[in-house]
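Technical annex B. To support the medicinal chemistry partners, we prepared a structural model of the target in complex with molybdenum atom, based solely on the information shown next.
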Amino acid sequence: MRKISRRRLITSGVVATAGVAGLAAATRIAARHGLIPPDCRGVYGPGETLTYAAQKLLTRHSLAREFPRSMISAKPFLNAVAPFSDAFKAHQALGFSDWTLKVDGMVARPTTFSLSDLRTLPRKSQITEVACEEGWSYIAEWIGTPLSHVLHEVGVLPEARYVVYYSIEPDWWESVDMADALHPQTFLTMGMNDGDLPVGFGGPLRLRVPRQLGYKSVKFITRITATDSLRGFGKGLGSASPEGGYSWFAGI
Ligand SMILES: Nc1nc2c(c(=O)[nH]1)N[C@H]1C(S)=C(S)[C@@H](COP(=O)(O)O)O[C@H]1N2
Ligand SMILES: [Mo]
């Protein structure tokens, strides 16, 4: 309860700042904390900045809700993915034994990991919810290794501010800031509900980002790049989502 009223207080403070002193003042506060999102321009830009900065300042240390095993959804909602490409099917035919994850960019030791390499890293599990922007959600157990371990293995440089991640599906790429990348619940996921991660749910490798909407949890991950700026990626808005009209930051 205390947390909620504190949150209300700070949120109304931020909103009041925006109302009284204008959005420019709020934006200056956000900038001081390094909390200007890549999709900060355009008609919705100031709103994106307010949302990102306010949520980040409020929830810096918070965890996504974890559920008891009894609440795992009997029928997890499988969102449609594009028909699998020939490239994907070729990996599938080999049982994904040749699937690799390339980690590069602002790292001391760029590395290509096989799935068995990733399986040697610390293994953790979380029972969290996937929530789609279209309104549905489900709860599942996700098993994998925190992305922070992988970033540690490759020696991510202190100047890196974002992590960009790519699916084998060319239209699916996202990024998160370093706080979310290093967050203990951000997992490179290889298992779900006691089994391997099914292909429909993003197998063999999915990045689970449980503090943001489902679309940030990209399926079929093949590459991760650390960077200090998102300008050079796509249209420079941070990821595929804002290019299609969705927010880059999708905190829940
Ligand atoms: N590669 C890829 N990742 C993806 C998608 C997709 O179509 N392709 N859909 C996204 C969206 S919009 C949502 S809501 C979730 C859905 O996850 P689910 O199928 O586990 O419900 O996956 C996200 N990750
Ligand atoms: Mo979604």
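Notes passed to the chemistry partners:
The longest helix spans residues 2-20.
Strands lie at 100-105, 111-114, 124-131, 137-146, 162-167, 173-177, 187-192, 195-196, 206-208, 221-227.
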